[in-house]
TrEMBL record:
It comes from Enterococcus alcedinis. Residues 1-25 form the signal peptide. It comes from the Bacteria. The keyword Membrane applies. Keywords: Membrane, Signal, Transmembrane, Transmembrane helix. Gene3D superfamilies: 3.10.310.50. Residues 235-269 are annotated as: Disordered. This is TPM domain-containing protein. The chain crosses the membrane at residues 179-197.
Length: 269
């Protein structure tokens, strides 16, 4: 057999094996078990979700059910964990038609993008559409508002509140002005240091070469790691109702479930 025929046979076999291997499909954005949405509405949801996913480096979902007999929060948390794992970036809107409950569960950076106040506003909009039986528009409204809030970024002064322990974790978010000032100070310090060294030694290119290999000596005698821009305080707060988005303001109320941390909120319709 010639080399050309052998190469052709090898390539043909490789293509066959590649196409025969099972390919794991990505998780669908919309899991409409009840059949509430039209194909056009699902296409719109998929498009918006794809744009959100690129921004958050995660996934967002919509699920409908009539078979859930557990607490809607538990169902939504478990659904999100099964799709993306614990503490990864994502969110899911549950439309529980049997229990007449709406629940929005968040994980990872979506806990910070969708704080309690923003979740309440999303749920207000979703609720209005649900009572009108405009189910597709309810889900589209959730995705549209989530996309808007992601584009706006994490609110200034944001913090997380653990509803079980009352622990508050604050996050420092640098503004554009603060970044500009920091860069200006850094450039000024670097320029001043350069001018000081040049004026002191008056080194000119090509006239002097410092024997750094013979004269340099470096010895690391201590190492210290410092955590900056993280502030944690604790206080006891009342446990919010299970159908509430939480305490509002600039914070996100969180809870632990199945080894992961989740935010979110819900209400009846």
């Amino acid at each position: 057999m010639s080399f050309r025929k052998s190469l052709f046979t090898f390539l043909l076999l490789a293509v066959f094996l590649f196409t025969a291997l099972p390919v794991q499909a990505a998780s669908p954005t919309v899991n409409d078990e009840v059949g509430l949405f039209t194909p056009e509405e699902i296409a719109t949801m998929n498009q918006i979700a794809s744009e959100i996913n690129q921004e958050i480096k995660g996934e967002v979902f919509v699920v409908t059910t009539t078979n859930n007999t557990t607490d809607p929060e538990t169902f939504a948390d478990n659904y999100l964990r099964n799709q993306i794992g614990n503490d990864n970036n994502g969110a899911v809107l549950l439309l529980d038609m049997a229990q007449r409950e709406i629940h929005l569960s968040t994980s990872g950076n979506m806990i910070d993008y969708l704080n309690d106040r923003r979740i309440d506003e999303i749920l207000d909009s979703v609720y209005d559409y649900m009572v009108q039986e405009s189910y597709g528009q309810a889900a589209i409204s959730y995705l549209t508002m989530a996309q808007k809030y992601v584009a706006q970024g994490v609110p200034g002064g944001h913090y997380r509140v653990d509803r079980e322990t009352g622990k508050i974790t604050r996050y420092k978010v640098l503004t554009g002005f603060e970044i500009f000032i920091a860069l200006g100070i850094a450039l000024a310090c670097a320029g001043g240091f350069f001018i000081f060294i040049k004026s002191r030694y008056q080194l000119k290119s090509g006239t002097y070469a410092y024997p750094f290999a013979e004269k340099s000596n470096f010895k690391l005698i201590d190492k210290e790691d410092r955590l900056v821009n993280s502030f944690v305080t604790t206080r006891r707060i009342p446990k919010p109702p299970s159908n509430s988005g939480g305490g509002g303001g600039g914070g996100s109320t969180t809870h632990s479930s199945g080894g992961g941390t989740f935010g979110g909120g819900g209400r009846s319709f």
